[in-house]
Amino acid sequence: MPLNQIKYFQKGFNFSQDGPGNRLVYHLYGCNFRCPWCANPECFAPDTATTTVTVDEMLAEILRSRPMFFSGGGVTFTGGEPTLQFEALLELLHKLKEENVHTAIECNASHPRLRELLPYVDHLMMDLKHTIPNAHQRIMGAELQTVTDNIRLAASTRQLALRIPLVNGYNTDKDCIEGFCKFLAELPQNPALTVELIPYHEYGKIKWQQHGMEYTVQNGFLSPARLAEIRTAFLEAGIPTIQT
Ligand code: SF4
């Protein structure tokens, strides 16, 4: 695909779910992870219907949507993994900041050049799914080191909304929770860093089936008691968490 084109599989407005205010949210196609609980598996399903536009076409659409960006809103790029379309996203973010549009991205923190995007991102959301390297590789199909490097980088310099999905059987046993707490406790003190725990849900399960893919998570739900224990463990490690 040419470097100035962007491929997405969904777009729409929502309020305060993917960044502040009312936002135009683009779900970009493609992901380098394969999280078994993914809520948007159409981002990597080969039969997904997609739309491809140039950077300038998307920019024009965003600028036309400006009257809708109320309550501090703007545009959000999520996915899939939006940073996979790196050159186009960089160009678009740069142009959006020239136009003074509030920008947000939601990403898996894995892109080795993520640092280059950050000056053009007002609201950064990143996921951390595991802190044990071989488990991250086995479950997500991707290495962990760049993820943790990028999270450390962002946490040391700027606002960051960090999200941790909690999936029973994958990342919620004692070692996993201790790993999260240790990693987070060692991040630089930053009042603009928030940590959100996202208990397992099955919103995406039916989409796996609709795209002919096997959904392999079983018993992913956490009991309320285990969830409370995990929140307490984070708190005792000095890491308050938010609940939405
Ligand atoms: S990183 Fe996000 S979009 Fe990619 S597979 Fe995992 S949950 Fe899905």
Fold and architecture overview:
- This protein is of the alpha/beta class and 244 residues long.
- The protein has a single domain, classed as TIM Barrel (Alpha-Beta Barrel).
- Helices cover 32% and strands 21% of the residues.
- The protein contains eight helices and eight strands; from the N terminus they run βββαβαβαβααβαβαα.
- Strand 4, helix 2 (86-98) and strand 5 form a beta-alpha-beta unit.
- It is globular and about 50 Å long.
- Iron/sulfur cluster is lined by residues 31, 33-35, 38, 40, 43, 79-81, 108.
Q: Enter the CATH topology name.
A: TIM Barrel
Low-confidence stretches: none
Instruction: Order the strands across the largest sheet as they lie in space.
Output: 3-1-2-4-5-6-7-8
Total domain units: 1
Per DSSP E runs of 2 or more residues, the count of β-strands stands at 8
